[in-house]
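Encode chain A's predicted structure.
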Amino acid sequence: MRRGVSIEGDPSSPENALSEPPPRTGHDVFISHSSKDKAAADAVCAILEQRKIRCWIAPRDITPGKEWGEAIIDAIAGSRMMILIFSANANDSPQISREVERAVNKQVVIVPLRIEDVAPTKSLEYFIGSVHWLDALHQPLESHLERIASVVEGALGGDAAAAAKQVAEPLQRPAPIVGWPVQSASSQGGIVAPGDPRLGRTQKSRRVFALSLAGALGTAALLAAGGLYYRSHLQSNRLTEKDTIVVSDFTNTTGDAVFDDTLKTALNVSLQQSPFLNVLSDSQVAKTLQQMTRPAGTKLTPEMVRELCLRAHSKAYLAGSIGSLGSEYVLGLKAVNCQNGDTLAQEQVTASSKEKVLDALGKTASRLRSELGESLATVQKFDVPLAEATTSSLEALKAFSLGRKTFNEKGSASALPFDHHAIELDPNFAVGYDALGVDYSSLGELERSSEYHTKAFQLREHASEREKLAITAYFYNNVTGELGKAVQTYQEQIESYPRAPAAYVNLGVVYALQGQYDKAAEVTRQAVQLAPDTLASDPNLVNYALALQRFDEARQMIHDMQGRPKGDDFILHDALYALAFLGADSAAMADQQKWFADKPDYENAGLALASDTEAYAGHLRNARDLTKRAVDSAIRADSKESGAVWLANAALQQVAFGNPTEARQTAAEALKLAPTSQGAESEAALAFAMAGDTARAESLAQELGKRSPLATQIQSLWLPTIQAQLALDRKNPAPALNALQAASHIEFGQIDFVANLSCLYPVYVRGQAYLAAGQGAAASAEFHKILDHSGIVWNCWTGALAHLGVARANALQSRTSQGADADTARVRALAAYKDFLTLWKDADPDIPIFQQAKAEYAKLQ
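Encoded structure for chain A:
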């Protein structure tokens, strides 16, 4: 049995030519290599194929869907020669030992190409100990490529004499090389020739020569051309920072379902550590599948993903596969040009056990990032191992993967069971807690959301740099409420990942909370430019347009979104309802109510909106009924916090309309339903203050301040407003106006727990304070702020009562002015009273403030 090529006696003797191989129909050369030596293997493959020598190399030539072991066995059997890229990495690879053994059994000629000065392990020595070697120990590898190709070409052509002429000297023992870019173990001393006593045996009957490539290497021009070809070949495979790639589902031939979806999620996490690569988002994939008339959950096979890649105008797709090889697992990644099918980059790695699969995948993805054009500096800087960036538990990662898939397809409520299961399987899964925080936030359960985001923040070191920044920013925004720190962290994220749209979208949200809607719109438009189909940005931009009173622009945005998948995005339908309300389009409002009614998790929000609309028109009895239904619906949806907010909002309506006793009862119900809800507590405290229950209001205010000492909106918006109302209860408007100065920079900020953007409570209370202080003109200006920002207020009761506020402010001016000024103010007051009474033309007649308004109007006439 032939164990390899053995050249004895006269190298030019016919007996030393390669014997006629058995008939083979595959490739000329099988290149066996460790995935860690892929750069060297690719270089050899490129130069041989330039010489028209057909090469088989994994993972490039493994047919998608074919079992790895089967593909390798067939490829070895179909090749005439095996080139073994020999290094310390090859020594460490059980897979290479199996490939070499298979080649020996199939009588395939083995030619080891030594790229590191190490000795073979005994298992490899058994098969290749008497084989002649090709040496390429001195860098750069390009300087050896032409000679390697000539030797292989001569040997395959049967011209052993020509090949033998390449042998210049017997095997030398050069010093270990330095600088060749492969991962290597510490030197074990120079590799030795068969017969060297360091191998523990002698072969005195053989004259052993190395096919040394350290001598003459051909003409300089030819070598330069070869090196240039290889470098230009690699350069053409590189992506640019504007290119997008699509990640396919993994081809899993192991039979183990734990890898389904899981490895794709893990690969996405690994690739998204890169500030260079742009992975097509789930929303963009969903949109493209819709264009292809495919369901959102369609499996992205290599064939399907290429079509999707072309439709999405992406540059490449990334196909992954996993197969079993005994007790080991072989993972492959291949980046393919969507247009022509050319392989841009590929990696293969073997994991010794299931527990090592994630680690192996992460390392493979890191090498692929470099091959696709990312700088080594950023690969090294942003390269947290996958087990640390996600979880070491495949089962937990699978549950998380199913959760994210369900979230994208069915919404947050459906994703909850999977995300809960993920953290049950791994209690240290930071990204899993973060996902739960997002789920509950989407459902309006902000207290629960804060709980899980706090846990994610505590575990943030178990996440990638990108996720760590996102978790930190979200924590500052939604847990501690430190909006300034949230802005700073999102800006850091944008600096590190300038092409990641999520940070821009989230920064826009924080600007909106600060009332800076121009900035919010600007930064969100940057996200749209980076990812035009990022659905999360669309409803936000609609809201910002509403806040800036750009209603036509908001309508155009929604028109442009027609035909695109909207999923169950509450924010979008909330904005659609607002536009319908502002346009007095009752039919459109009814359409949106149908959408809410069909969504059990969001039905309560739709009922709360309807309640506010009824209260805006003075239909308090209808509003009470709808609030009760909204609370019941929220409880059924396991969203008690939302129900509590609807009750607290109703309490504010009731006291503003002149029913303080009812308001105190409703506020108490809100606190009983969700005692720890910051949103319910804030509104309830203001309701108690407006109802004259100063003791309860002060107690709640102290508790809010203690629990949220750093929260921007609590400290600058809610507490000053509550304190101002308490001062008004004491008939002392001056301290009220002083307290409200703290709210002036943030008073237009979006409130994230209510159905509209904001009721502008600080502005309303300031208007009341100016009335109490006898400053009619200043009071009128405050109430006009509310009327002039209907895109923020929507259907909140403050929008209705602002008309009455303007009327009262002008009536006050008419009483405190003289002559023409008094007459003009009276005319304005009459017009404002008329506006309010027209708005409330069919209001419930027993509402105290309605009765007061009619009496004031009659007296002024």
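Residues 29 and 540 are 57 Å apart (CA to CA).
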